[in-house]
Sequence to fold (618 residues):
Amino acid sequence: MSQATTMTTGARPVAPRRTGSLGDALFAGACQAAGAFVLLLLGGIIVELFIGGLPAFRAFGLSFLWSTEWDPVAEVFGAGVSIYGTIVTAVLAIIFAVPLAFGVAFTLTELAPPWLRRPVGTAVELLAAVPSIIYGMWGFFLIAPLMAQYVQPTLIDSLGELPGIGFLFQGPPFGTGILTAALILAIMILPFIAATMRDVFEQVPPVYKESAYGLGCTTWEVMRGVVLPYTRISVAGGVMLGLGRALGETMAVTFVIGNANRITTTLFGPGNTIASVVALEFGESETGSLKLSSLLALGFILFVISFVVLATSRYLLRSRLKG
Amino acid sequence: MSATTQPALTPVKDLKVAARLGRGRKRTDLIIRSLSLAATGIGLVFLASILVTLFVKGFGAMDLAVFTEVTKPPGSEGGLLNAIVGSLIQVALATLIGTPIGMLVGTYLAEYARGSRFGDVVRFVSDILLSAPSILIGLFVYQLLVLPFGGFSGWAGVAALAIIIIPIVVRTTEDMLSLVPNTLREAVIGLGAPKWKMIVLVSWRSAISGIITGVLLGIARIAGETAPLLFTSLGNNAWSTDLSAPMPSLPITIYSYAGSPFQDWIELAWAGALLITLAVLLLNIGARSLLGRGK
Fold:
C-alpha cells in the first residue's frame, strides 16, 4: 500500500499540478460564464421587450406614454391609465405599509421579549412567502366583500363629506378598486420593508443606544433620536425595495382592482395597472398584432420604472450590503 | 450648606415641570409602543386570516378526486391531478436547471470576483433580477422561446421558472460562501490542492446547508408563480406530460378556476390554493429550521 503510494507520487510529480490547473481553468471559466449569462439575461429582457414593443412605439410615438385610449377595435392603444394605476396603487401601498412595517421592526428589535422575536419574525416573513395568487383569491373572496359592506360605506359617510379630500372617498362601494388593490399590495410588501428595517436597526452599535438610555431617554426617544438617524438611508432603501415589489405585482392586483381602463378621481373606482393589463389582455391578442406589441411596450415601460426604483434601492442599501 | 438651600427653592418648581414633562414623554413612548405592537398584531392577523380562509374553504373542497381526477368541464366530478403533476414537472426541471447556474454565479461572486468591477456588475444585475416583476420574465421567455418555436410549451414554462430561481440561489450561495472562514481556504491551498478542489470540497461543503436553504426557498417561490406561466406553458385542461406542448400547472388552474362563474370550479381552486400554500409554507419553515440548525 504505502509503497504504491510513494511510487505513484514519485512517478508523476508534475501531473497533479497540471490536472489541477486545467481543472482550475475549466472551473473558473464555468463560473465566469455563468456570471456573464446573468448579464445576458437582463440584457435579453431589455432588448426583447423593446423589440416586441417597437411597432407600438412607432405607431403611437411618445404620446403612447400618456394617451389614455385603449381601444382594441380601432387599434388605438395608450399606456396612460395603466401607468397612472401602477403608480397610484404602489404609492398608496407604501403609505399603508411603511408605518406598519416600522411598527413590526420596532417590536422585533426593541419591544418583544427575545424568545418571542424569532417566531413572530418568521410569521411576518411567511407573509412574503404566500404566493401572489393566494393573495388575489383571499382579497377577492374575503377582503373585497368586507370593503363593500363595511369599510367603504363608513369611509363614504365620514370622509366623503369633507371638503378638499372628500372626492377621494365617493362613489359606489363595489369592494374592488384602487383602494382595495393598494391595501392587498401593502400587506404583500409589508414583510420586505419590515425585514430590511429590522436588519438595519439591529446593526446600530449598542453603545450608541446605551448612552442614550443612560441619559434617561425612553425607548421611543432612542428610536427617534439614535436608531432612525443612524439608519435612515437604509430605511429609505427598504422602502424603495417595497415600492419596486409593489409596482410589478400581477396576480393579486388583477383579482381586486376592477380592471377598467379609466382614471377615476375616487379611490373606490376601478382601474388597472401595467401588470394587470398585460396579464388580462394577453390571452386575447393575436400574434403579431398591434395590441400584443402594445402589451410588450407596456412591459418595457414597467421594466424601466422597476429598474430605476430597484437600482435606487440597492444604491441606498449599499452600506448595509457591505457591512 | 446654606448656600445650596437657597437655590433649591426653584428646583422644586422645576421638578414639577420636569415631572410633567417626564409624564408627557412617557405617554408618547407608551402610545408609540402600543401602536407598534398593534401593527405587529395586524400583520399576524392578516397571516392568520389568510390561513384560516384557506383551511376552511380548502378542506371543505378537498376530497380524493382532487388527487385522482384530471380537470374536467364544470358539473362533472373533476380533480387537479394533471395540474399537480404539471407543476411538479416544471418546478423540478426549473430547479435542476437553475440551481447549478445559480451556484456557479454565486461561487464566482464569492470566490473569484471579490472586489472586481465585473463581479460588482454581476451582483447588481442578479439583485435586480431577484426583485424584477416576474410577469416581465414571462414576456421575455414568450418573445424568446414561444414566438420563434411556434407555440406555448412546458419547456418555455421551465425556462421562465429557472430564470426566476437563479438569482435566489445566487444570493444565498454568495452569502453562505462569504461566511466560510478564509483560514479554511488557506489551509487547503497550503496543502497544495488546486483552487477548484478547495471550492468544491471545502467551501461548498461547509456552506451546503445554507445553499440548500436557498434552493428550498427558491422552489417555494417558483411553485406559486402564476404570471410568468401565463405566457409560457399557458395551461392545459387535459392530461399532458409532453414538455413541447402547453402544460397544465396548479397556479394557472387556480387562476382560471377562481375567476370562473362555476361553484365546483371555485371550490377546486380553493383546494388547489390550500395545497400550494401548504407546500410553500412547509418548504419555508423547513428551510429556516435547516438553517437554524446549521448555525
About this structure: Residues 1-8 of chain B have pLDDT under 50 and may be disordered. The two ends of chain B are 62 Å apart (CA to CA).
